[in-house]
Amino acid sequence: xxxxxxxxxxxxxxxxxxxxxxxxxxxxxxxxxxxxxxxxxxxxxxxxxxxxxxxxxxxxxxxxxxxxxxxxxxxxxxxxxxxxxxxxxxxxxxxxxxxxxxxxxxxxxxxxxxxxxxxxxxxxxxxxxxxxxxxxxxxxxxxxxxxxxxx
Length: 151
Fold this sequence. Notes:
elongated
């Protein structure tokens, strides 16, 4: 019932709010401010860059980036960052959430990031892969056998 229903950016936003709430209630990962800001900023920027590379590759291929409509994909993108991960946008979201957890000094935020990954895997990635397999067949199977889902 939840498959491809809630856009992943919304899931990320809700998870980010939960991480901030957990961090305010009980910060459990004390880091010196400089290290915390550098690590958090690095993770946030890296995540944003990973997402941007995925989006740019989809745009260049002229295919949809709407994650709720994987059946609308017009091309199987297997170049650029997609040579290293089948899901750079979700990998980028998870990386940004890790940065957010570090910024809020929240060990609970690390757990919430894990929940985000599990949710996205079950309710977004697996349905997307079924749709792509149905549409692109052996081409998708070859891609999936050569490139990992996450890293």
